[in-house]
Amino acid sequence: MTDKKITPIKEKPKLVATLKEIIPDYKKLTADDLVKTIRQKIDYGKHDPNHLLDLYEYEISRRLDEARKENKKPEVSLSIFRSLMKKTEIRILQNLMTHRVEIKS
Fold first, then answer.
1. pTM for this model (two decimals)
2. What is the pLDDT of residues 48-62, one digit of tens each?
3. Distances in Å between the alpha carbon of 30 and those of 26, 71, 74?
4. 8 Å CB contact between 52 and 21
């Protein structure tokens, strides 16, 4: 093998913002309020939409796990239901031909 010169990286890696840095009081917000706040941040274009949605999914998943661990009922909302279905890998689709909602696992 030939000797190759290794050049050091000049740029510092970009730090990925956490949900706490973006929305300081996210734990106090309900799932619906958290979605609204995240959609506002996406609309203003200050943050990456995919990153914010991933942070949201992680937070809702954490809340569902915490509720299961403490034997409590999770918050009741459509966004929690969607996250629960996504976590269990069940897809909710709309059939455009029959105009029906289908649930596939």
1. 0.70
2. 889 998 999 899 989
3. 8, 19, 11
4. no
